[in-house]
Amino acid sequence: MASFVPASFPVEHQGVNRVAAGFAAIRQGVRQTKSLGTLFVAAIVALLVVEGDLIVSLWTE
After folding, report:
1. Which residue has the higher pLDDT, 49 or 34?
2. I need a surface site. Which of 31, 33, 47, 61 has the fewest CB within 10 A?
């Protein structure tokens, strides 16, 4: 007589859960990087203003 092993399988696929968690982390990261990107753009603008001032001061001498 054959005996069968009862198997219980998960309802959700682990790969799908992993991908969903990855997308959630990316969405969270995008929210945080928007402020970091704004800070970076502000730093670049400040650099250009300072360099522009230096170039104009050299022209006027």
Report:
1. 49
2. 61
